[in-house]
Amino acid sequence: MELRNLRHFSALAEILNYRVAAERLHLTQPALTRSIAALERELGVQLFDRDKRHVALTADGAELLERAGDVLADAERLAAAADAIRARQRDEVRVALYGVALAELTHPVIEAFCERYPRATIRVHEADFHQGLDPLLAGEHDVALLPLNVDMPGVTRVPIFTEPASLALWKGHPLAGAAAVDVTEVFDQPWVTPEPGLDFWLGGRNGDDAPTVGFHARSAQDVSLKIAYQHMVGLMPLSATRMFPHPGVENVAPKETLGLVAAVAFPEAGHSPAAPAFAEVARRVARRASGVPYAELAR
């Protein structure tokens, strides 16, 4: 069975339009028709009811669609595992940066790792908040640098330092000029947060009060844009106010000190041999250099 036929089946099942599905798959419409027909012949099952105007999944097609999705997901995981094996063979280390990563220490840490392991090739990627840590656990990245206050299942978290968080308000917000603000005062306003939820920033803050989440951002810049132009509220690492300032965002200190833990993370099982070494280099660099204003080193 050809995986490409399963992909064509899944795409058509999602769109239920041969022309649109063929365009999305970069195929001609007759080529897509032949692919679906070949899959139906191989399975011995009619997957779609179709006439000149309508396309619909049959009951058998709907039942097989979920299983086809599982097969395709397994194939993607296999490909990611193969990528990880090739990366290890090439002494390649793939580093994902979430937001401000390790703030001002990000560059010194990567440089120090390259000096310590000159055969290693570093590939740096900007992470998408919406994907959470799934790419790391799937083997697409070897190491992640990110603010992470809580332990995550399947992930080894190595704290490097803790820095204060800043409450980010749009320019002109009634509280923008305050010396300090109780964050619960703005819980009823729309908040912009990254994935996976507020624990990423608030560090597992408990209680009945919770912010009203209006948008999940994909990046640190996306957070600033939503605050500045859609009048949302958010929390940022204090380093973000230095590294990514925005003229439409005002930063105010929270009355209750909120700390964000900058960490190196890698999978607990099947991780690259370079991952623990990278974390150790990060800890050494942090101990040698102050680097991040107002930060407290992890013990």
TrEMBL record:
The keyword Transcription applies. Transmembrane segments: none annotated. Residues 1-58 form the HTH lysR-type domain. It comes from the Bacteria. GO terms for molecular function: DNA binding; DNA-binding transcription factor activity. Pfam families: HTH_1 (PF00126), LysR_substrate (PF03466). Gene3D superfamilies: 3.40.190.290, Winged helix-like DNA-binding domain superfamily/Winged helix DNA-binding domain. InterPro entries: LysR_HTH_N (IPR000847), LysR_subst-bd (IPR005119), WH-like_DNA-bd_sf (IPR036388), WH_DNA-bd_sf (IPR036390). SUPFAM superfamilies: Periplasmic binding protein-like II, Winged helix' DNA-binding domain. Keywords: DNA-binding, Transcription, Transcription regulation. The keyword DNA-binding applies. PANTHER family: HCA OPERON TRANSCRIPTIONAL ACTIVATOR HCAR, TRANSCRIPTIONAL DUAL REGULATOR HCAR-RELATED. This is LysR family transcriptional regulator. It comes from Streptomyces cyaneochromogenes.
